[in-house]
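Sanity check

After download, print the first record. It should look like this:
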Amino acid sequence: MNKVIVTGGAGFIGSHICKTLLKRGDFVVCIDNFDDYYDPKIKENNVSGLIKNPSFKLYRKDITNYQDMEDIFHEENPEKIIHMAARAGVRFSIEKPLLYEKVNIKGTLNLLELSVKYKIKSFIFASSSSVYGERKDVPFKETDKIDNPISPYAATKKAAELLSYTYHHLHNLNITCLRFFTVYGPSGRPDMATHKFITSILNEKPIDMYGDGTSIRDYTYVADIVNGIISALDKNLGYEIINLGGSNPIELKNFISTMEKVIGKKAIINKMSLQAGDVTKTYADIDKAKRLLGWIPKTSLEEGLRKTFEYIATNKDQK
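Expected structure tokens:
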């Protein structure tokens, strides 16, 4: 049994990670500050079924507070870390860049410092496909240059990857940076397109479609992402950057039509211009994930959307 810290563990992906770790017998230390980026009640619901588990411990703390983090490390003496906590959202980062710098860079630096001090065996960092910026060459490879991020969010994720390499180089930390590609699924964030679209179509309200519908995303179901994270957690790869993506990109208009098929209702589409910070395409090369992690995504888009729809339809109190 491992004792694993999961930062952002009450969030969308984080809560799925906590549940998976508990099922396999690990002790989970969940750190989350339950911020108000979206309704904190959603996070409360995500962990409500875990609170009474004797192998689960919840700390309502902020990763930007070094002393609070040190107190937790000292109390728990963890072996491994899955660092999910971050200020998410490309568009909001343009409005609040200083907040994104504080959480995504300073918060990560706090955890890296403490990982050295407490001799952490494995550090998994949740990065993002956003670091690739706007590019024509596809699929995106981990060896691609990422010198042109087009949002503060993307820039902070790149900075955290660089800090991770520095700590590996200086202190021989075992760190894997996983670049996620448009993760969706049950208990997904309400600000993300999948959740917003399904909710709006269900309620027969318009959805905002940015651009002409030809933008391309590589959607990845949350259970597949979690399997990749756990696989990386169990390995000692030194320092690696690895894409985790569906590797089956789809145009926005086709994504919407698949959603309509799953729900059994037509979408009312409100056409909008493209927004600053949004890239027009993402597409993951996952050869490295296959080779190093033995990982391949197993969930088709239609199956994943169906599971997401069923969850939202039965949890209508979540906004």
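If your output differs, re-run the checksum step. Summary of this record's structure: Residues 3-186+219-247+282-298 form a domain with the Rossmann fold fold (CATH 3.40.50.720).
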